[in-house]
Design brief:
heterodimer; A: Butyryl-Coa Dehydrogenase, subunit A, domain 1; Butyryl-CoA Dehydrogenase, subunit A, domain 2; Butyryl-CoA Dehydrogenase, subunit A, domain 3; 3 domains; two-stranded antiparallel sheet; B: 419 residues; alpha+beta; Butyryl-Coa Dehydrogenase, subunit A, domain 1; four-stranded antiparallel beta sheet
Chain lengths: 362, 419
């Protein structure tokens, strides 16, 4: 069957996350960006919504099964509130979800209950590297086998919460294939930068640079490893869903502003030049939301082309987010360029999607 | 409800069959009927009529529902979804030929939407007959396109004979010739003409009238020569003192303040826009598949998964085209799924038409560009698909009028608030 409506359980989740996003994240977004920190209280409140907990089976301390579709719905809603806030709340997933997807039984037992049952705690993953054409399939960070262990060397960028992280998954090139490795806190040779990364947007999300010099790690899934494509697709879908959420936020602000703002005796929304922009924004958001849903559904159902579809959703949503958030600023005119107005931050955040991968996963 | 993208089995089976039709009965003669504008591919017409009748479609492409087998669980309705996927596949074959698939088309749709039970029985039965039969909708006039409220055609009731007398001029009547002109191989069709019974009443004075083929006073003035969809006839029709029986008016014969006759016509568009979008996407998909095939023949492989910075320009274009075609198609599916489930879909139906109009035009343009001389040559079909595709962004409301509809929906504005 084709069907385009979240089930009851998903709808309840969407409603709960939507409420949190609108009432808690949105009002806090501006100050968090300027102050370079998201209030801990809000992060805890978001964690209590139980997005990750609901995707981990009972045997590992959670209360549900992982679904990329449900994840995409939740991420979209969360990112609608604020991207940095959403990524902060969901950071533990960066570590837990790859283990859920590709970890050995032992790894699952070791980590999942601890993460899922407790308070929000910093767990993270390190994927990106400083290269203009960064490609998750050809990483410069390397992993070499050393008995039962593996030794990692390289440098990672944009690693959320790396400074305090209890543990992280580091992605590295192992014999030409990308694999994830579990690195414990305080491992010898693991150096986290003192300074935080400074980016165009996402300043409320503390991100660090991580150097690895002969760091000993264990491989995700043990000796036989895991299918990295499953993890990559889950990252791309999460990113696509977040892009849809950010775009939707900018669209909502712009729509409401256009209905308030007077010019030449009418509201600017009554001018076709503005109304048509809004119509196209809404249309493109819908297009990419559906493409993201389909990719997520294909991942959940292990359809043959889930990789390609996740890539298309990621690529398309990133472009869409840029188009929509740019127009959000444009509709506000000069006011859109002022940092007090939320569309300004949304445009800076909207630009990041094509180059930011691995900051979220469903 | 749930979120799911598995094509229902009846649709999968139907698509396999229709693909064969598209390849063997449509594409094989596409060029011939493009070069010989307005000649009729009888093989296709007669085959489709017989096939659709046999399949219980009443001799036309219509919304059909399976009767559930005894004791079987009742499945959710998929009539519109089936129809949209049929149209997409036939248009993948040849969009012009899809348009001349026999059946009631928009004319019958108007009767079905606004007619009484007696009228439906009287006018719709014929499509199930022995011969392929057509009906057309006459809305557009030389001075009135999407602005249908400024239609000038008038219908006046002759109290003495209880007949309507209709005068006016209609253009861009898709299938007007096959619906009105009497052909030996075709059944007796009709045209549905929109006219005002009270010009002072504006839109609420608009009515649709069924005019049987051969009625005196109706003249097909010409068949337009077009850029594309050349196998589909587009008629210009004049009506001079045309006498139509009283009972051929669809909706109430009198004007009341609360009358919603015109809204009936607009509701028809909510149902048909996703179908037009589906047709456009069929052409776009044809062009994209052809492009990828030719590229592969020439040793160009699309490397999915790479960051933009590592892709060639051609790869980027193709990937963008795929994103466009796939997402536009999902929008169509959602709009028809809503129609099947009786959810109001005015917004989704106009949005998917906006998107499909853009995508179809852009994808065919780009495909021609990328293939260079291969794209421009009449030896191959791509140049034809480019010409065929453009109509998607024009008929059933241009991209602009549909943007206006979308904008009014999302802003909650009336036509007066957003002109």
């Amino acid at each position: 069957m084709y069907s385009f409506e979240p089930n009851e359980e998903q709808q309840m989740l969407v409603d709960a996350v939507g409420k949190y996003a609108a009432n808690d994240l949105r009002p806090a977004a501006h100050d968090a960006e300027e102050g370079r920190e998201f209030p801990k209280k809000l992060v805890s409140k978001g964690w209590e919504l139980g997005l990750l907990q609901a995707s981990v089976p009972e045997s590992y301390g959670g209360f549900g099964d992982r679904s990329a579709v449900t994840g995409a719905l939740a991420v979209e809603e969360m990112a609608f509130g604020d991207l940095a806030g959403a990524l902060s709340v969901m950071a533990p997933s960066l570590f837990a979800t790859p283990i859920l997807i590709g970890g050995s039984e032992e790894q699952k037992q070791q980590y999942l209950p601890k993460i899922v049952c407790g308070e929000w705690a910093p767990y993270t993953a390190a994927l990106m590297e400083m290269s203009f054409d960064f490609d998750a399939h050809s990483l410069k960070t390397t992993a070499k086998a050393d008995g039962e262990q593996y030794v990692l060397n390289g440098e990672k960028i944009f690693v959320p919460f790396a400074k305090d992280a209890e543990a992280m998954v580091v992605y590295a090139n192992f014999n030409g294939v990308t694999q994830g490795f579990i690195v414990a806190k305080g491992s010898t040779g693991l150096v986290v930068s003192e300074e935080r990364e400074k980016l165009m947007g996402l300043n409320a999300l503390p991100m660090y640079r991580v150097k690895l010099e002969n760091v000993t790690a264990s491989r995700l899934g043990g000796a036989s490893g895991h299918d990295f494509e499953l993890i990559l697709a889950a990252m791309r879908i999460a990113s696509a869903a977040a892009a849809v959420g950010v775009a939707k936020s900018s669209f909502e602000y712009a729509k409401n502003y256009a209905k308030e703002r007077d010019a030449f005796g009418v509201k600017i929304a009554q001018k076709q030049a503005v109304a048509f922009m809004l119509a196209e924004m809404r249309t493109e958001i819908e297009a990419m939301r559906l493409l993201t849903w389909e990719a997520a559904w294909k991942l959940d159902n292990q359809k043959e082309d889930f990789c390609i579809d996740a890539y298309l959703a990621f690529t398309g949503s990133a472009d869409m987010a840029m188009m929509v958030t740019d127009r959000g600023v444009q509709i506000y005119g000069g006011h859109g360029y002022i940092r007090e107005n939320p569309v300004e931050l949304l445009m800076r955040n909207g630009r990041g999607f094509p180059m930011l991968l691995g900051l979220a996963i469903v | 409800m749930t979120i799911e993208f598995e094509a229902p089995k009846p649709i999968v089976q139907q698509q396999v069959m229709l693909k064969t039709v598209a390849e063997n009965m449509m594409r094989s003669v596409s060029r011939e009927f493009d070069e010989n504008e307005h000649s009729i591919p009888w093989d296709y017409v007669e085959f489709m009529h017989t096939a659709m009748k046999a399949a219980g479609g009443g001799g036309g492409l219509t919304v059909t529902e399976e009767k559930p087998k005894e004791g079987a669980e009742k499945r959710p309705p998929i009539g519109y979804q089936k129809l949209a996927t049929q149209i997409e596949m036939l248009s993948w074959g040849d969009v012009g030929m899809y348009l001349i698939t026999p059946g009631g088309g928009l004319g019958a749709a108007a009767v079905a939407a606004a007619g009484s039970p007696e009228q439906k029985a009287k006018f719709l039965e014929r499509f199930n007959g022995d011969k392929p039969t057509y009906a057309a909708m006459c809305m557009t006039e030389p001075g009135a396109g999407s602005d249908t409220s400024s239609i000038r055609t008038r219908a006046v009731l002759d109290e003495a004979t209880k007949e309507w007398i209709i005068n006016g001029e209609k253009i861009f009547v898709t299938g007007g010739d096959k619906s009105f002109t009497e052909y030996e191989k075709l059944g007796k069709g009709f045209i549905v003409v929109w006219a005002s019974i009270d010009p002072s009443a504006g839109r609420s004075g608009m009515r649709a009238f069924v005019i049987e083929s051969g009625t005196p006073g109706v003249k097909i003035n010409k068949l337009e020569h077009k850029m594309g969809i050349r196998v589909s006839d587009t008629a210009a029709i004049s009506l001079v003192d045309v006498r139509v029986p009283f009972e051929n008016v669809l909706g109430k014969p009198t004007v009341e303040k609360t009358n919603t006759g015109f809204k009936g016509a607009m509701a028809t568009f909510d149902a048909t826009r996703p179908l037009v979008a589906a047709s456009g996407i069929g052409v776009a998909r044809a062009a994209l598949e052809f492009l990828k095939e030719k590229l592969e023949e020439n040793g160009v492989k699309i490397r999915y998964g790479l960051p933009r910075q590592k892709l060639t320009n051609i790869e980027r274009e193709v990937i963008d085209m795929e994103i466009m075609v796939k997402s536009a198609w999902l929008m169509v599916l959602k709009a028809v799924w809503m129609a099947d489930n009786k959810k109001p879909n005015a917004l989704e139906s106009s949005m998917c038409k906006v998107k499909a109009g853009d995508v179809t035009t852009k994808v065919t343009q780009k495909a021609v560009e990328i293939l260079g001389p291969l794209g421009y040559s009449r030896e191959l079909l791509l140049e034809k698909w480019f010409r065929d595709a453009k109509i998607t962004d024009i008929y059933e409301g241009t991209g602009q009028i549909n943007r206006l509809v979308v904008a009014r929906q999302i802003l909650g504005y009336t036509g007066a608030e957003l002109r």
